[in-house]
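Give me the fold.
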Amino acid sequence: MADFFGDTMLLLPCAVIIVALLLWKAETRRTSLQWLLLIGAAGAIVIVSKLAFLGWGIGSRTLDFTGFSGHSALSASIWPVLIWILASRVSRRLRLAAVACGYLLALAIGVSRVILHAHSVSEVIAGLTLGFAISTSFLLMQYSRGTRIRHLSAGQLTAVLLLPLLLVMQGKKAPTQSLLEQIALTIAPIHHVYTRSDLLKGRLDADTSLINPQ
């Protein structure tokens, strides 16, 4: 279950919900642009790192690194910010506690990726570091500006949470990995995408020796 809370199928709609909530009030429309730029940068870094490995084998055998963990990066970027917005009605202390839970949720998702052998420790650390940098930067900017989020009624809060809840219930995951593999096959001079096994077993060394014979 923790793994699904880091899936693109759930987190991309949550990122859009954040934009919608920020656009709702005139005073926070500029804030929505800040959010779009930050989350866009996080997504771009993750995608480029993954395509670099899938298409060109750019990674680290020593660190067992094939790209930023997308689950970790997006979770750490989105959950603290979304919870900060949704907790706008509660006291400052409770809001800080709620945001801390958002950070802990992202950390749990990252740990689950290692436990499930979906990512190496280095990939999860890189993803969490990127995501926490994004969410913390955004929240600190809002703190320095004294940004006030429009309060949501109980009915509005239920409506906002309805889509994520429905996505959790249906349990389907986004086919992001297969999509990235198709993109890599299209843009890179390869017939098969690079895999972690290639990195660890030496396919990259073999390919390099063919390209650059001694």
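The radius of gyration is 19 Å.
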